[in-house]
Amino acid sequence: MANYLHTEGICLRRLDYSNTSQVAAFLTPDAGTLSVMAKGVTRAPKRGVRTGFDLLGRYELIYTPRPAGTLQNLTYRWLREDFRGLRRSLPGMLCGFYVAELALNFAAEGDPCPGLYARTLETLRRLDAGRRLGLNVLRLELGALAEHGTLPVFDRCSRCGGPLPDRGPVTFSPADGGVLCATCEGASGPGDVPPRGGTIPVRADFLPLLAALAAGKDVPDLDPRRTVALSTVLRFHIRYQLGKELRMWKYLQRRELTRSLRRIRRRLPQR
């Protein structure tokens, strides 16, 4: 008798296979990333329209398990949330696609991740409602790093544990796992090899904001410029942890660049 497993998952990726089937990857709380083969999922009913998985949709799933590293056989699926609000604007769609890519890179197959799943689902619901896209993406980046065990240290020096200044620039080092104080920053000699991954300067007054967001607290007065600056620090750290840049970054950065160009054009004198 077949052994059926029941779970829920967010569709992160889908690919057509033959004329009527699809291969899809789901983020699930109890199985990490779950890759399934759904036979006949795109077969059109009589006088109907072909259907398939909704990307980023939350599904209830029943599947028969197979050995690790192979596609699981999906038996039934029910769409519970489709997050149609993400399709109302291009920024919302881009942020949604970035959520999927982030989850695919920080979740592992067969490794339960209830925390990451809950954070991803909460982020999609907030984005679907049109709430502060950049801030919610920033929260998910912090949450993904926390669940991965690589969240940087923002409230003290990551090397010696000493206090940090309240103002001025400080150095962020992904190799050290956080921010460095002035003593540790200048401790390297002229012949020492620079840390792998490099460093970037960070404003010291940004650190309490990052620490508060990492602890799950609300920061209602965070403006879009600071959101972009804080996210830049985290993406520098994510690139070090993953060893690559995520594909969606250039599209998100292009959107911010377009906004900056519009602001500059408004300030130019009219001819």
Radius of gyration: 22 Å
Alpha-carbon distance between the termini? 79 Å
Q: Structural class of the helices, strands and pairings?
A: alpha+beta
Order of helices and strands: EEEEEHHHEEHEHHH
Largest sheet: 5 strands, mixed, barrel
Proportion of residues in helical segments: 25-40%
Low-confidence stretches: 189-194
Mean pLDDT: 83
CATH architecture of the largest domain: Beta Barrel
Number of helices: 7
CATH class of the largest domain: Mainly Beta
Strand content: 15-25%
Number of domains: 2
* Side-by-side strand order of the widest sheet: 1-2-3-5-4
Could you name the CATH homologous superfamily of the largest domain? Nucleic acid-binding proteins
Q: What does this protein look like?
A:
- The N and C termini lie far apart (79 Å).
- The protein has 271 residues and is α+β, with helices and mostly antiparallel strands.
- It has two domains: 5-41 and 54-146, OB fold (Dihydrolipoamide Acetyltransferase, E2P); 150-266, no CATH class.
- Helices cover 36% and strands 21% of the residues.
- Strand 1 and strand 2 form a beta hairpin.
- A five-stranded mixed beta barrel has the order 1-2-3-5-4.
- Helix 1 packs antiparallel against helix 7 (249-267) and helix 3 (133-148) runs parallel beside helix 6.
